[in-house]
What we know:
Layout: E1 3-6, H1 10-16, H2 19-34, E2 43-44, E3 53-59, E4 62-69, E5 72-80, H3 81-90, E6 92-95, E7 102-105, H4 107-120, H5 132-137, H6 145-148, H7 154-159, H8 166-176, H9 181-189, H10 206-211, E8 218-220, H11 223-231, H12 234-237, H13 241-247, E9 256-260, H14 266-280, E10 285-288, H15 292-305, H16 309-312, E11 315-318, H17 320-332, H18 346-361, E12 377-380, H19 388-396, E13 405-409, E14 430-434, E15 436-441, H20 442-452, E16 457-459, E17 461-465, E18 471-474, E19 480-484, H21 487-503, E20 511-515, H22 518-528, E21 534-537, E22 546-551, H23 567-585, E23 588-597
Parallel strand pairs: 1-5, 9-13, 9-14, 10-11, 10-12, 12-13, 15-18, 19-23, 20-21, 20-22, 22-23
Antiparallel strand pairs: 1-8, 2-3, 3-4, 4-5, 6-7, 16-17
Helix pairs in contact: 8-9, 13-14, 17-18, 18-19, 20-23, 21-22
GO molecular function: 3'-5' DNA helicase activity; ATP binding; DNA binding; hydrolase activity
Protein name: AAA family ATPase
InterPro entries: DNA_helicase_UvrD-like_C, DNA_helicase_UvrD/REP, P-loop_NTPase
Amino acid sequence: xxxxxxxxxxxxxxxxxxxxxxxxxxxxxxxxxxxxxxxxxxxxxxxxxxxxxxxxxxxxxxxxxxxxxxxxxxxxxxxxxxxxxxxxxxxxxxxxxxxxxxxxxxxxxxxxxxxxxxxxxxxxxxxxxxxxxxxxxxxxxxxxxxxxxxxxxxxxxxxxxxxxxxxxxxxxxxxxxxxxxxxxxxxxxxxxxxxxxxxxxxxxxxxxxxxxxxxxxxxxxxxxxxxxxxxxxxxxxxxxxxxxxxxxxxxxxxxxxxxxxxxxxxxxxxxxxxxxxxxxxxxxxxxxxxxxxxxxxxxxxxxxxxxxxxxxxxxxxxxxxxxxxxxxxxxxxxxxxxxxxxxxxxxxxxxxxxxxxxxxxxxxxxxxxxxxxxxxxxxxxxxxxxxxxxxxxxxxxxxxxxxxxxxxxxxxxxxxxxxxxxxxxxxxxxxxxxxxxxxxxxxxxxxxxxxxxxxxxxxxxxxxxxxxxxxxxxxxxxxxxxxxxxxxxxxxxxxxxxxxxxxxxxxxxxxxxxxxxxxxxxxxxxxxxxxxxxxxxxxxxxxxxxxxxxxxxxxxxxxxxxxxxxxxxxxxxxxxxxxxxxxxxxxxxxxxxxxxxxxxxxxxxx
Length: 606
């Protein structure tokens, strides 16, 4: 029986096919997996740069491209026949000798680039000071060394990025920027998906390499698993190595704090960590999010992510206020009133819930019987916006044991006025980081960082958190900033822009409009009429993402609102205002449109 691994691009390719072709392709894959009569058989590719590459006929006019080694088949993509043969001849595949992960090389492009590099190579070349042994120790492929030796400038390295595996480009890019061998090693190590280092790397063992490469392959053992992988959204199945390493770690001995910028996948990691703990942990899991709407979204995504109903029931989605309400309600036998005579505030309910937990379990540090806690594991998303009382409640709701608290946040995206260091609350968290934005283009990210100010902020960790080291995976269009003479003209410009986006075929659900105040939100809705796009305040877009985003009313006196006179309060208010604008702008995957009427916000002066 073949061992079949599905590549990340395949489900999307299949879903884009016409229904009859897709149906035939899926049936062919089922037959191939079961090794029954009528199953497609691998066909050699003449002129292939990798002898292990073959194609499978999966339907009328379409073929799958596979990399095979004995009974292992890595199905990379499905394409029309001519494109499939070209793709199969163009690429070669390897195994990184340091990390043991698979590598995909655009061999055709590299062969065409080499003469140009040779012609432009100077007398002094970029990597002359580094010996072959050091480059090989960084996992640089021995067959690529002659090409690497031709590189003269940092620009050459960046130009090669589309054709190199990231495990090859990352250390070379670090060295090209003037980094040390240690810094280059750290860049390479960021592509490791598992914490355990293999004792020995067999660069001929494709199966082991695919198992170490969760972003590139997932094995399917039967028809049920095949259908699940082909039908699930890509985020359910394929995680980037840094994300996988955090979400699927076998055990954390103390609380973990993951700091990550916009688009780095914090919420995705939170979902997968909650699912992992539900499947392999020791008790009920609470996934905490900031808002009710985000809670509903996360619950729906967990329904998609976790196929086993029994495992799904082990994860509850909520927030500190909902947790406090539940604890007090169960203790008093009725739901506490929040309005009218005898009503209590949410802060009072939180304090009462903490008192009840302390009375029920005794000393909060005495966790001899973890089962007496409401939850065994707690995963907290958007952690930057919770206050001290909320954190104390969350800490009290789970035992002090391994895998108790897993926290994700970004102080720079804070939309509240809370500034809490976890260590000061008795939560000595081990800090990790996500530094690559997969959602944003570099242009949108750079623009948003300049808006944010780039300075350090406080919260979550002791001292100040700087905003550096964050980068995007791809390039895109530069954000557009337009000035209008009047609010009416600005709203007309918004209507024209959104109308043009819709005419281009952008789905309404992939467009969002954000404004600072509810009054501006209402005005934008009136201007857009029956165009069914999301219109919200800045903070209302928190946790969401869209293909295109229009941020309006970024004018003096509106963004920021008039700050207080007290210097300390003024600084905090301005930081919060920058944070809300930063959140709104970083919701855009591809196009960001910013407008103002009259004089623009001082935040735009960069």
